[in-house]
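Students often ask why we bother encoding 3D structure as a string. The short answer is that it lets us treat folding as translation between two languages. Here is a chain of 313 residues written in the first language.
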Amino acid sequence: MKVKGNPTTPLSALRQAFGERLQENVVMANYTTAHVGGPADAMLIVHSAVELESAMRSLWQLQVPYFIFGSGSNVLVSDSGFRGLVLVNRAKTVRIDTHNTPHTVWAESGANFSGVARQVALRGLSGLEWAATIPGSVGGAVYGNAGAYGSDMRANLVLAEILHPILGRQEWNVEQLRYNYRSSALKSQPGQTVILAARLQLNPSTPAEVQAKMEEFSEKRRKSQPPGASLGSMFKNPPGDFAGRLIEAAGLKGTRSGGVQVSPVHANFFVNAENATASDYYRLIQQVQQRVFEHSGVQLALEIEQIGAWRDE
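And here it is in the second language, the structure alphabet:
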């Protein structure tokens, strides 16, 4: 059944603003790494930071509810979908600067973060080896302070190019982003700004040394993280502990809800094992949070974002 635009989604105005570029009634399961999610009223794909800025200015002017999609990881879209416009960010230009000190890489926010890490590795530049296993976009990494293997975005970021609906383009440094574990000033106030690009600091090395470190991290990932469709890490690690350990200690490894399963390999990953729905994920999230709290007294906080309407069942 075709999902009609909500009164807060002015489809006629969006058609006038974006013309044939606008898609309507788009099933989000085709765009998320877990392969779940209902229809969005509208979708727009942008291919550069310039297009992203122009689209955002139009959406702010029209006061249209929106959500920016990068790689589709770390995002759980409800089965009822999203009443607004999903903006798919495919702005992915990358520029490496070795003429100035420190060496840096500038990347648009839609660029695949692991792809950026591989590009700088080929130039013998160190600093992003940890990012070789990060599945998301540069913008998502800046937004959520992505990290792995003892490092994170805070350690590399020189500045982020930010678009504000009133103040326009700005450059934010690490201090302004107020990074904490998997959080930032941007994430604590979602929807108020948009990340256009980021510049990251690098160190001179050799292609062989950088590649060896990346392969070491990739091998660790293959051994510890499950294959299959998932959202990535489901919960943040609580201080001094690991979400996966707490879930396993509560006897939840392998637990299923409909088509989704707590991975038998790593308990902080929920895998779409058999035509799972977003509601399956939602029920399993609640079950795991409750059981872990009962077992250890720890309230697990989501690392993923939930998009759309949700209800307890």
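Translate back mentally: The two ends are 23 Å apart (CA to CA). Keep this in mind for the problem set.
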